[in-house]
Amino acid sequence: MRLTGQVLIFDADDTLWENNVLFERVIADFLDWLEHPTFDRVEIRAILDDIEAANAVSHGYGSKVFLRSLAECLERLHGRPATARERRRIDELAVTLIERRVELVPGVAETLTDLGARHELLLLTKGDQDEQQRKLDASQLAHHFSGIHIVPEKGVDAYLRLVQRRDLTPMTTWMIGNSPKSDILPARQAGMNAVFIPHDHTWVLEQSELDPGDERVLRLGAFPELLDHF
Predict the structure, then answer these.
(1) DSSP H helical ranges for the chain
(2) Which of 37, 45, 97, 141 sits at a 20 to 30 Å CA gap from 164?
(3) Residue 111 CB: number of other CB atoms within 10 A?
(4) CA angle 63, 203, 177 (to 5 degrees)
(5) pTM beyond 0.85
(6) Nearest CA to 193 among 212, 169, 209?
(7) Each residue of 26-35: pLDDT tens digit?
(8) Do residues 15 and 199 make contact, with C-beta atoms less than 8 angstroms apart?
(9) 6 near 230, Cβ under 8 Å?
């Protein structure tokens, strides 16, 4: 049986469109180029993950912060500042992140059209304001949503503010996303329901354990499966 009259809040990156796989491709190219004489790829990736985690706290998310993390990783490994030539090479590696088209996850546009006939749809995404807005504009999905909210971080406070701002009823509100850390757990802490749609390339820093016994978390295999429930 389908639910009707719900408020469905959607994550954007890796829920509506592909995102982290593009960063992973740049990291692979970065590791190929770096060729460190002592550390192997796994060790370098662990260093980069630590740098990205620290920079996410201090500087937020997005391509600019990612480029900063790559440069800092190089500097830590070589024990010196990156040269102008090295910084240009990093920029070249990451050009596809800055000048790219948005690739929608299969079935997203059609599913949103169908869902919008029965439910109120909102968008909640985190990251750099301008960058996220550019991706949304390129996706041509904005018209599906009655509200678009771009925030620097998606902790429980962001969800509680959204509940207050939109006068939402948590029991009939669902957060839909691929990230346990940013989508599912904080939404549940705010009293909402949640739909977890795993993505093969979810960022390692967005991973977290979910309670398998939580009956208010619906687990789906693909985005179009939402139509079986809403």
Answers:
(1) 20-34, 41-59, 63-78, 84-93, 95-98, 108-116, 129-139, 156-166, 185-189
(2) 141
(3) 20
(4) 100
(5) no
(6) 169
(7) 999 999 898 7
(8) yes
(9) yes
